[in-house]
Amino acid sequence: MESEPKFVNWVKPDVSHxxxxxxxxxxxxxxxxxxIKIAIEKAxxxxxxxxxxxxxxxxxxxxxxxxxxxxxxxxQVSRDYKAIAEAYLAGKPMxxxxxxRHGNTFHLISGNTRLMVARALNxxxxxxxxxx
Length: 132
Hints:
It is built from 6 helices and 6 strands; from the N terminus they run βααβαααβββαβ.
């Protein structure tokens, strides 16, 4: 695998592809699913700075240091991190992870594996931050 990404073309995530994660978040946070969907539609892709990344709930992506870390964590939840790493390195479009901001809390809705691989490859990720 090549070691440096050429360019990451961050794109807005397909809500229908992330519906299971959105439903899980709706139940976990007690926020109606329609309210989350509207917030996602209105949100823009922004840089994920290290401070917000360290505050993200329900992810250990900020602590990843290598692809070996990613492999260990991804295997626990049956995620294909290799395809994501290859897409980053090939410069293919990457759906941005979705984060919900609820008060002072940042909760990752989807994109944990994308964030882990980005950290391992030293890529500054962009995310969709949805304000609730």
